């Protein structure tokens, strides 16, 4: 291949790569719907970003936005946890937690176009369907433990 052809191939690959995938902006919202008076600890990361540990009040959300990378491999995961204060709850006194894939381009690009909304509830982590607005169950919490804490998220 001569240099001109090679250059043309590279330019076309970048052009179509960009126009189909990368540069597209996505906003994620994670709503704390666990229980009144229950804070949600949340710590989200990607390979390149660490959004830090946050405490979200009931019915509030953490939101952030990002651009899909050139390769379409954009991935964010979040450690989440909350103290079960309900004496008749899941695991009274326990710290209910887990780590979940909250944005995965390959999984989510068709499910939520631009805005991806999650409702975090006491029974698990639900994705909000963009058309029906209904909760779709996605993940269960890990078994509660008394020694886990938010700094481990
Ligand atoms: C985020 O939280 C605010 C404040 O509670 C709420 O008004 C808004 O609807 C939430 N956004 C989404 C997309 O769930």
Corresponding CATH architecture: Sandwich
Strand content: 35-45%
How widely separated are the two ends?
51 Å
Largest sheet: 5 strands, mixed
Q: Give helix and strand order, one letter per element, not per position.
A: HEEEEEEHEEE
Model regions low in confidence, pLDDT < 50 over at least 5 residues: none
**Major sheet: arrangement of strands:** 4-1-7-8-9
Instruction: List the ions, cofactors and other small molecules found in this model.
Output: 2-acetamido-2-deoxy-beta-D-glucopyranose
Q: C-alpha Rg, in Å?
A: 19 Å
Helix fraction by DSSP (H/I, runs of at least 4): 10-25%
Pfam family, one: Self-incomp_S1
Family: Belongs to the plant self-incompatibility (S1) protein family.
Signal peptide: 1-23
Keywords: Secreted, Self-incompatibility, Signal
